[in-house]
Design a protein that fits this description.
The protein is of the alpha/beta class. The chain contains 9 helices and 7 strands, in the order E-H-E-H-E-H-H-E-H-E-H-E-H-E-H-H. The protein has a 7-stranded parallel beta sheet with strand order 3-2-4-1-5-6-7, with helices on both faces. The termini are far apart. The relative contact order is 0.18.
Length: 237
């Protein structure tokens, strides 16, 4: 089963656009891809969610959303306030396993950070990754403050016996400041895992065809791309 769990160091760090880039690069490499969103919060039934955004940007992928809650809150809180059943890790595992039967790669995109609660029992995306025995890709911010939360996320993964596949910077600025430049070297140290890409800020606003063509250039070979961390760092000094 080829499953990759995608989490962020927080909300609004570019997780959905990174998920779309990973999907697009895999499709360009000839792989069939499915994207699974266990819990979508903050959108109504009529609005497009993260899965629709990944489908729009990445193209030929299979999208599946297990639950949707209208308020922009943690899934457990949003489910409780909506009077709806929460999504539980076992449901996510089963859905991912079904998708893996017919796809080369299944991307499971969490909501917010790794330890955001999915249900009243305190289950999290980390529990999902454990059930799936899947590596976790961490999407991080580029600038000041990102090292601590990246290190905490990586430590939480290690404490649970989970593997951090690597870190992708979710929104690399057009004009990076000193902190962002230094973080190219420091993020892998903080995570104890390689830097596997940097998606430029505003990538999600590109025309879909442009996004799909460019996506492999933002990601390392481990993610079906051609990006190189050392080369990227040398270009920004």
């Amino acid at each position: 089963m080829s499953v990759l769990v995608v989490t962020g160091t927080g909300t609004e760090v570019g997780k959905t656009v990174v998920t779309a880039a990973v999907a697009a690069a895999a499709v360009a490499a000839g792989r069939s891809v499915a994207v699974l969103k266990p819990a979508q919060t903050g959108v109504t039934a009529q609005e497009p969610g993260d899965v629709a955004e990944v489908e729009r940007l990445a193209g030929a992928v299979t999208g599946l959303e297990l639950a949707r809650y209208p308020e922009p809150l943690a899934p457990a809180t949003a489910a409780r306030r909506a009077g709806r059943a929460p999504v539980r890790p076992k449901e996510v595992e089963q859905a991912a396993a079904r998708l893996a039967e017919s796809h080369d790669l299944v991307l499971v995109e969490g909501a917010g950070g790794l330890l955001v609660r999915l249900d009243e029992a305190g289950s999290t995306l980390a529990d999902v990754a454990g059930l799936l025995d899947a590596p976790v890709l961490v999407v991080a911010q580029p600038g000041l403050g990102t090292l601590n939360i990246t290190a905490l996320t990586a430590e939480a993964l290690r404490a649970r016996g989970l593997r951090c596949a690597g870190v992708v910077i979710g929104s690399w600025p057009a004009v990076p400041d000193l902190a962002a430049l230094c973080n190219l070297a420091d993020l892998p140290e903080a995570a104890g895992a390689p830097l596997l890409g940097a998606v430029p800020e505003g990538a999600g606003t590109l025309p879909a065809a442009t996004f799909r063509t460019a996506a492999p250039s933002w990601l390392a070979p481990e993610l079906s791309g051609g990006w190189d961390a050392e080369r990227f760092a040398s270009q920004h000094h």
